[in-house]
Amino acid sequence: MEKLKSLVPETLRRMIAESTADDLPSTCSSLLDFLLQFEPFQQMVRDLTDPEVALCGKNKEAALESKKKGNRCFLTGDYANALDFYTQALRVAPMDALEEDRNLVATLYVNRASVLHKMGLVRECVRDCNRALRISSNYAKAWFRRGKANASMGNYEDAIRDLDVAKIMEASVGGKKQIESETKIVLDQQNSAASPSKQHNQNNSNKLDEPHQMKLQCVTTPEKGKGLASTVDIPQASLIHTEDPFAMIILKHCRETHCHYCLNELPADKVPCTSCSIPWYCSQQCCIEAGGEMYCDYPNDQSIHEYLSDDLQKYILETTLNADSERDNQISEHKHECKGVHWPAVLPSEIVLAGRVLVNSIKKRGGSTDSFNLGEILDLSHHYSKMPPESKLELHIYSTVLSFCLQHCDGFEIPLHGISISQIVILISQIRVNSMTVVLMKSIDYYDLVGQFGKFSSLEGGPTSNVEQVRVGQAIYTSGSLFNHSCQPNIHAYFLSRTLHIRTTEFVAAGCPLELSYGPQVGQWDCKDRVQFLEDEYSFRCQCSGCSKINFSDLVLNAFHCGNLNCSGIVLESSVVNCEKEKLKHLPNIINTGSMDPLLQAEELNIDDINKAAHNMQINNFSHPGYCLKCGSYRDLESSSAAANKCFRRLKNSLDSENVSSTTLLGALSSLGELRSTLHAYNRRIAEAEDKFAQAFCLVGELQPAMEHCKASIQILENLYNPNHIVIGYELAKLSSIQLLLGDTAAMDSIDRLYEIFSCYYGSHTDVIFPYLQLLRKRCRPVL
Ligand SMILES: C[S@@+](CC[C@H](N)C(=O)[O-])C[C@H]1O[C@@H](n2cnc3c(N)ncnc32)[C@H](O)[C@@H]1O
């Protein structure tokens, strides 16, 4: 891309750099004319779209080679590698009209089923047998393996029926004898089992029914454009919106670990796409929904079925019927990419997502593409004109490349001219502003909680630094993208699989805007960092209340201690002073309404102090950085900042070390004292340091000081965020696990409080997303 960009003639580059959305048809047309004559571009497009050179197609030789390796590993008892080889073989095994090819896939599923059975993954084993049987319902080995797996799970009735079918399907006398003796074993097991139990395959769908019939209204403001507001008073923790994506794509780093359709983690029996070797799915259902071909309805020799009882014939039908074969109106998001060609694997995710949105909207319109105009693809906002010149050029090139790639789609042809490419440029600009990152929670085991202490950290880094959260996909939710951003949000977005859920985190009065955080929040970063982040990432200047009104958190987050150690006042750096001065333009609103955040009133620096501080800054008395806002004492910020940095580094080095001991901790405590006398008591770095101490004391087994430091960290965070913020919930999870280990009865209160906070953010989904919380609760009762 860089090379291609550098080869675009200077005049064209300038034209594109200076273009607005209105100029796009002409700039796109000029670039297309240039690229059509430019051989390296033509070559690149050929490489991306030619099925002959595609590396992502099926490859029978490679499948046979992997199968052979899998067999060797199986024979030597190396089941982990056998599983890998069979899975690799399945990924590239062709699944077309040839019976021989289909039989190879069925064999691979049965071989993998045997490995899964050996590894104790019995449910997965049964699922693989079912897949083999959907391809070939007469496959004796698959019925036999299924029977054995069902017996291991105590499903004796099914096991016996599986073995009965296997015996009829089996051609050899030796084979039939083996099945008979297996049946005898299962019958004995059934007889000796106290109460024969039948386990049904559990549907682990994590969607709970929770009614939500909130009527939201679209409102438009000059500062933020369109947005959503409530029409009625909405109680805290109400589910106000759920939505499936218009189009979605898995992020590249999750391609081998998560299902490309539902985004859940892949099981050991993951399923490949039937036509190419790119996507993995957790089930055939997801494979079909994403647009792969189906494995069912292949012709099987039915003559043998005459020898089966009615009951067994019905049983075969039930087992081999694909419950999802009847899906109508399915928008298959992968099918148009599914030719083994390179481009879906190589182009950036947002470009492939643009392709999916485009194809999806064309299908929704009935599949027709106007040969002159694709029309408005999405009705969403964009900031094309504000983009940096380099991004504009890149967008032009990618849009042209995507148009060429989509030319080869089944059923419709994307027109190739300036107007249509300009609409793709707009579409990608809309995706940049409106797409959401699908983040899923990685569940953590309660027993690991103290060991995993650091991983719970809500303190470090950017908005997604919490290791519990895995960024898995990028998606367009057409209604969900109407929610504007606030650094002090009143709603919270989360995902169950690919479905977006939005819940109020506080009471929202009728008519109030409903706003979520696109990343940064008050309490996490100071105002200038938040504003910068939103400008860099989303090209807009934040106009939320957090960034336009003075709040306590922004004042203290990075503040210094007053030079007079007896004073609890705040000393600010120049960048913070400048940012707060900007907000003073809104000061009359704050003073007049008197509706300051309760946080401010709770703190010793109450509304009067804030107003005084603001007033002081305004009349220029203390407007110079380095002066205490309360008593006016001076502090040399250059040396204080250097001292704090040094102190923090020293602290981190000793606490993050693998060989942390009680002695190193004792030494580090003096650095903490130094930090406390340099930085303001509610400076975020002190919270971070307290958290690190808590973690380090846990590691050396000193739980009492660990608990004290954990509490100290929570106390600071309660002042930076509000006391019911989810960040406090995460910290309480750590605190309660330490309290449990100490046998401290306060654990129950901590757990009750954290449950209240989590329920406010996740409602009835709390237990599904955080199963360890329930464990924590159960564990609490016997201990205390
Ligand atoms: C996902 S869209 C939200 C819907 C959008 N307001 C519209 O009119 O379609 C995001 C865009 O909304 C605007 N926006 C959202 N939150 C904002 C805020 N706090 N301050 C200023 N603009 C905001 C920005 O233009 C941003 O790029």
Automatic annotation (TrEMBL):
Polar residues: compositionally biased ranges: 189-206
Q: Which domain of life is it from?
A: Eukaryota
Q: Which SMART domains match?
A: TPR
Q: Which SUPFAM superfamilies match?
A: SET domain, TPR-like
Question: InterPro entries, from UniProt?
Answer: SET_dom (IPR001214), SET_dom_sf (IPR046341), TPR-like_helical_dom_sf (IPR011990), TPR_rpt (IPR019734)
UniProt-annotated stretches for the region Disordered: 189-211
Domain SET: from-to ranges: 214-519
PANTHER family cross-referenced by the UniProt entry: TETRATRICOPEPTIDE REPEAT (TPR)-LIKE SUPERFAMILY PROTEIN (PTHR47337)
How is this protein named in the record?
A: SET domain-containing protein
Q: Which organism is it from?
A: Rubus argutus
